Amino acid sequence: MLQESGGEGLNIGIVGGGAIGLLLAAYLGRRHGVTVYTRRPSQARQLAEHGVALKKDGETSVVAVRAQPFAGAELDEPLVFVTVKQYDLASVCAQIDAFRRVRTLVFLQNGMGHLEQLTMFADKNVLVGVVEHGAMKLDDRTVAHTGAGKLTLASRYGSFGDARELREGERGFPIEWADDWERILVDKLVVNAVINPLTALLQVKNGALLETAPYRDMMRQLFDEVQNVLPLEDANRAWERVVRICRKTADNYSSMYMDLANGRRTEIDAILGYVLKQGEARGAMLPVVRFVFCAVKGKEGGEMDG
Known about the structure:
single chain
């Protein structure tokens, strides 16, 4: 049954109809009015006509949303989440006039290479966020919630703005507020830099990295190089966090694994490419990072950016 989208809450825009965009729409759309801005008109039509379907624990719920193509749109929602992959962010930001009426922007990209692009919105409230949920897009309007986690938000420019009106306990979708934007991004980057590329190259689920001794050795070698060039407060705690998340998501396939398996471009430039640039800036040799980076680039058939 199609549920009505929330009318008493905020008007929220979501740029991007991928797994994370659909997951946000499914949960936030229960309480708020949500508009999803997609790349393809056909996806916008599907969402507008049939709503977004959320599959979780063997059950399917459907939430009504508005939807339209992003190209040529003028967003009038005060709060907008930008969920496109980092390599698509430049083309979204190029349509800067589309965001003229937006007061608060939330960017949910992996890695940290996108931070420079956010300066063009410094006159607004700009937040960065880390999504710790597992999500898989099944079709243009359906997303599977494969692992419960949380959304952590921190302010990069301005304040939390309209995002503060989101309840910390959005049902099934908890939201936390952080004071240090760099810390939450670095913590997530370290996890992504170790787990995602190795599972993609080895073609295994996350848990196999811990179960197989040589794979765990590779994890540690990669982590040791990554932590040398990133501002970590406590390397031991960071390693423990990588292991904990790997164990918690043992049955999951990483997003980079799924990208390679489906012939899609990966976010390796945003993740290990960023680490390599930090190494170059510090004069640090990162042979393991570069090997893994080049191997993933070769698998995806991409040009060398790092």
